[in-house]
């Protein structure tokens, strides 16, 4: 029987190997994504980095992380700030604009008699929160 030939140690060792393989692939992808995300680096240098990564992957990735790790963190932080800013702008556009716009719309509804003063106060409080 095939299952009788596989011990618990073999299964655990395989899990450890796959775990470290997954981590290695994630680090490699992160380095490559950062390399091509960096607009200050020339195309020739990017090509040299890729060749270096293909020929000597462990050494190249560790050198890249040591030499360009700080810039890598700064680019990731800038990307996250940009993404957050874009998301906030999208939410504002979908939510009905700025708080002053929301209060103005609520005032129009109050003046038209669609809502009463309590509902206007509630909408105003939500817009200012």
Structural features, described:
The chain is mostly helical and 129 residues long. It folds into two domains: 3-95, no CATH class; 97-129, no CATH class. Helices cover 84% and strands 0% of the residues. The chain contains five helices and no strands. The protein has helices at 8-37, 43-55, 57-95, 99-112, 117-128. The longest helix has 39 residues, at 57-95. It is elongated and about 80 Å long. The protein starts with 7 loop residues before the first helix and ends with a helix.
Return the structural class: mainly alpha
State the domain count: 2
Query: What is the beta-strand fraction?
Result: under 5%
**Percent in helix:** over 70%
Q: Mean pLDDT across all residues, rounded? A: 90
* Terminal CA distance: 67 Å
What's the story with the biggest beta sheet? Answer: none
What is the radius of gyration? 27 Å
Number of β-strand runs:
0
List keywords for this structure.
mainly alpha, 129 residues
In a few lines, what is going on in this structure?
With 129 residues, the chain is mostly helical. The protein contains five helices and no strands.
List the helices and strands and how they pair.
Layout: H1 8-37, H2 43-55, H3 57-95, H4 99-112, H5 117-128
């Amino acid at each position: 029987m095939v299952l009788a030939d596989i011990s618990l140690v073999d299964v655990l060792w395989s899990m450890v190997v796959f775990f470290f393989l997954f981590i290695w692939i994630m680090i490699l992808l992160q380095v490559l994504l950062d390399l091509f995300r960096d607009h200050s680096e020339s195309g020739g240098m990017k090509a040299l980095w890729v060749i270096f990564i293909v020929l000597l992957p462990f050494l190249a990735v560790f050198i890249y992380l040591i030499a360009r790790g700080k810039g890598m963190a700064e680019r990731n932080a800038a990307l996250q700030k940009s993404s957050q800013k874009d998301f906030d702008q999208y939410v504002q556009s979908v939510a009905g604009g700025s708080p002053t716009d929301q209060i103005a719309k609520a005032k129009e509804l109050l003046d038209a008699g669609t809502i009463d003063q309590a509902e206007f106060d509630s909408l105003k409080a939500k817009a200012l929160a």
